[in-house]
Amino acid sequence: MKTKQQGFIFALISSCTFGTIPFFSLPILEAGMNVGSMLTYRFIISTVCLLLMAVVCGQNVRINLKEFGQISILALLYDASAVTMIHGYEFMPSGIATTIQFSYPIFTPIIMFLVFKEKIGWRTILAIALAVLGVMALSSSEGTSGTIAAVGIVLELLAGLTYAIYLVLIPHMSIRTMDSSKLTFYVFLMSTVYMALYAMCIGGLQPAPSASVWIWLFLLGLIPTAVSNITLTLSLKRIGSTLSAILGALEPLTAMVLGIAVMGEPFTALIGVGFVSIIAAVMLLVVK
Known about the structure:
mainly alpha
């Protein structure tokens, strides 16, 4: 199989598995586990998977103090994005929440303009307008209303914003040259520490109440965390960031399809308009 074809396959796997986060998360939350505990176990499992991968590949996982400090900042942002995204599921259907969170590519050029004084072109302005239209449509749809919708939207936009800051910071840090799988391993390792502390602050680190919850936790740590990040790394090396980002649009589509088909979440014309608007906004920025 040609390298480019492999890249497309890895990108498809990555985006689709990322989109299963709500599918694996909601049964765990419904079983009574708090968000901090669930995410702690998620990152423990994914960290172990990446460590095993590093051992098998004979990779050097040593880092210095400066790299540790930078990774600690990135992990804090990654955790903030994960926590706000999951909490957003409490206020709106998961497919809608994931679509709003997918607005993070819109935040990236805005941050680059405000912080690094990069110019904003007509594509960015149009993309922002489409994203705003999409959020308005989704917030007006069935399943989201009033204050509840407002809280959910703010949480998902914060998830998108913190993830955008995470992505913007990496190229401006000295760890930008670090192997991506090694960087991801340490981000997940520090994320585990932060999440354990967060869990302690909101009631303690809870054990899984049943064997089925342990299975859901294992799948959450494996499929939309370890597998998705490993395949994303493999796709970036083969087809680059632009094509990987385009295929990343399957993430909210997967979440929405699973939400509607499996979890019985609503689908209306407004949801369709909102979904298409946000995806179109992202495509405007990644397709040059």
